[in-house]
Each structure stands twice: as C-alpha cells, then as structure tokens.
C-alpha cells in the first residue's frame, strides 16, 4: 500500500482506485478487441503498473513496451481504475494471459514485482552460466533469485547478515555472501551483472 499512498497523496480530488498489480477474469471485451488480439470472455489475465501501451512508437515496435513514451500508467492516468476493485476496464495492450498452472494469488505479485526484476534479467544480454549479483533479499530479491536460477544463471546473493542465507539458498542461490563487517569483497569471483533490489544504493567503491 505504500506505493498507492505515495502516488496519490495530494494528487487528485477524486477518490482513486487503488491497486497496481492483480489478476482477474475477462467478463466483457470491446468491439475491436478481436481485431488486435485473441483475448476473449473467460480468459484469466494479469495486469500491472501500466494500463496501456501505444503499440507504434520505436520501443513498442522493438518489444520494449515498458519504455513506451506514450503509455498510460497507474497514478497518472485513469485514476478510477485500480486492481483492488471488483471490476476494472483495462486496455488489451497491457493485459497478460495467466497460465492455468499458476494460482491467481501467486500470479498477482508477478505483474509488478516480478516484472521489475524479470526485465533486467531478460533484456541485457545475460547468458546461461553468467554470474548475476543480487543485492537485497526482500520481495524483489526473492523473485530475482528464483528467476535467475530458473534462467540457468548463477545467482550470487549479497545481503547484510547471515539471517537470510538458508532462505536464499532454498530459492536457488548459487552463492550467499554476508557483507556486514567486511571491508571488501576480495576473494569473491566478480559478477557479470549486478541487480540491486535493496531500498538503498550500496557503496560500490572498489
């Protein structure tokens, strides 16, 4: 809820629709939906921070819709639409079919938190076997470890203390390094990519 309150505090006189990630079942489609997609009534779909992509700008054409300069997104457009509602209207460009094997309560967090860590893992040229450093084991970090492991990367986890070692390893971490009390990371094989999921930027001084 912190994101919702941060976004909307003082930004609108209307009662906003809260919720920026969710899963629902389509009950009605627009008259032209069948022309641009195969979504239909009864489909279970997920939706996240973005509510619409233009589909024709340079980044959309390249498949990087999250960078669309013409997007409509939570907090800046359609203030009455939020995933905590019993019903919402969403553009087909920002809907994603949820596979039958994934429960709705598990799929919901993937629409924002999952997408946040999936994109850098998927879009920056990392290959199987690469060492992906993951800093911070909160909500995003947990997902990053699981994704990295399933994508055949080496998930090299950095956390302040030893308290989350067992948890991180159970999610697929290849290595776990506690940084508290260390003056340097000397002796650790360098990583190929670094994904920072902590809420503060760590000291990256060599």
From TrEMBL:
- Show the InterPro entries listed in the entry: ADH-like_N, ADH_Zn_CS, CAD-like, GroES-like_sf, NAD(P)-bd_dom_sf
What keywords is this UniProt entry annotated with? Metal-binding, Oxidoreductase, Zinc
UniProt keyword annotation of Magnesium present: no
What GO annotations for molecular function exist for this entry? Answer: oxidoreductase activity, acting on the CH-OH group of donors, NAD or NADP as acceptor; zinc ion binding
Species whose genome carries this gene: Clonostachys chloroleuca
Q: In its keyword annotation, does this UniProt entry include Oxidoreductase? A: yes
Q: Which residues form the Alcohol dehydrogenase-like N-terminal domain?
A: 14-100
* Gene3D superfamilies (UniProt xref): Medium-chain alcohol dehydrogenases, catalytic domain (3.90.180.10), NAD(P)-binding Rossmann-like Domain (3.40.50.720)
Q: Extract the Pfam families matched here.
A: ADH_N
**What is the name of this protein?**
Alcohol dehydrogenase-like N-terminal domain-containing protein
